[in-house]
């Protein structure tokens, strides 16, 4: 075989491999590292058993689904939110459908904006279970209003809850993990902590702040390799986050359900979260297309990303003013369906 033919064959193989990877990316619902971990990485069923896991915002949405999936892994669960009755409902379902007993689940009401209560709440968990292996910072709130129409109180509320509350609880749990030289701090951020989009000025600000804080914290903890700091950045996911989003006034929310058929199933999002936790991934992006592609553009081609964001942003604002979900019309045909 001549060298020329060999080079042509190598070039053809490289081209085929590139096309295959491109097709896989177009069907992906997570960043490439996460997809590799799902295929070849460690399983949550192997890595997360017998751990004590504290989940905030556990009364609905991602936090609720996370509690259900964790309950099947043989963990000890601490479920926190403001609504005690909803937490009790989640606990009952965990006991009915999971592998846990009554003693394995602690209901711990918590208001993240009441930062003076966080140290006492941490002590309650340690008294109950003796350790905290994983803290999942999931509680938070979104926004649906133009910046110019939004009260300053809304921005304050979003920073208090999404950023300062999360930081405060983390700093209460962190000394325990440092003492043990191990633990995982998992923060449910958002793709809007990486990119930006209209109608979310305050929400984006709080999520960008979270990403900056935890990236810095990870670097500060480099001398503790057993402590893992992970940012989970989902795109649109089926939940009540839009319904409960603040609008122009801090006392007002969207308050109505919108069509969510175009969004990722909560169960799929949580499964990918568990995979990232099992594989100690530092940051993961979880989203269907085109949101995943847009995030890659923001990361590697920001000039193009700004152009595309301005184009799609006009439609997002139009959808909102027409009473639709802001993201409902974004390339539905691209959506990958998962059970």
From TrEMBL:
PROSITE patterns assigned to the protein according to its UniProt record, in alphabetical order: ADH_SHORT
One term of GO molecular function: oxidoreductase activity
This protein's UniProt keywords: Oxidoreductase
InterPro entries: NAD(P)-bd_dom_sf, Sc_DH/Rdtase_CS, SDR_fam, SDR_family_member_7
Position of the signal peptide: none
Family: Belongs to the short-chain dehydrogenases/reductases (SDR) family.
Protein's recorded name: Dehydrogenase/reductase SDR family member 7
């Amino acid at each position: 075989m001549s060298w020329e033919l060999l080079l042509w064959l190598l070039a053809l193989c490289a081209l085929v491999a590139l096309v295959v990877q491109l097709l896989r990316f177009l069907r992906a619902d997570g960043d490439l590292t996460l997809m590799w971990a799902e295929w070849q990485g460690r399983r949550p069923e192997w890595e997360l058993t017998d751990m004590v896991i504290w989940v905030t915002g556990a009364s609905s949405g991602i936090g609720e689904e996370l509690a259900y999936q964790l309950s099947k892994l043989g963990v000890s669960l601490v479920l926190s939110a403001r609504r005690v009755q909803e937490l009790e409902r989640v606990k009952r379902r965990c006991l009915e459908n999971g592998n846990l007993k009554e003693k394995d689940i602690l209901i711990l009401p918590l208001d993240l904006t009441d930062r003076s209560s966080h140290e006492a709440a941490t002590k309650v968990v340690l008294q109950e279970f003796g350790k905290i292996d994983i803290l999942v910072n999931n509680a938070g709130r979104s926004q649906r209003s133009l910046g110019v129409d939004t009260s300053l109180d809304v921005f304050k509320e979003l920073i208090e809850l999404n950023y300062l509350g999360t930081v405060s609880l983390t700093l209460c749990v962190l000394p325990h993990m440092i003492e043990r030289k191990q633990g995982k701090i998992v923060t449910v951020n958002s793709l809007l902590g990486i990119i930006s989009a209209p109608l979310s000025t305050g929400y984006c600000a709080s999520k960008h702040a979270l990403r900056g804080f935890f990236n810095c914290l990870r670097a500060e903890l480099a001398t503790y390799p057993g402590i893992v700091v992970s940012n989970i950045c989902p795109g649109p996911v089926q939940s009540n986050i839009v319904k409960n989003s603040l609008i122009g006034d801090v006392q007002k929310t969207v308050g109505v359900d919108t069509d969510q058929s175009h969004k990722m199933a909560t169960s799929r999002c949580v499964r990918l979260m568990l995979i990232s936790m099992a594989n100690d991934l530092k940051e993961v992006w979880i989203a269907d297309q085109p949101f995943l592609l847009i995030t890659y553009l923001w990361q590697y081609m920001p000039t193009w990303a700004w152009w595309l964001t301005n184009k799609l942003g006009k439609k997002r604002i139009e959808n909102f003013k027409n009473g639709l979900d802001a993201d409902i019309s974004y390339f539905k045909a691209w959506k990958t369906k998962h059970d």
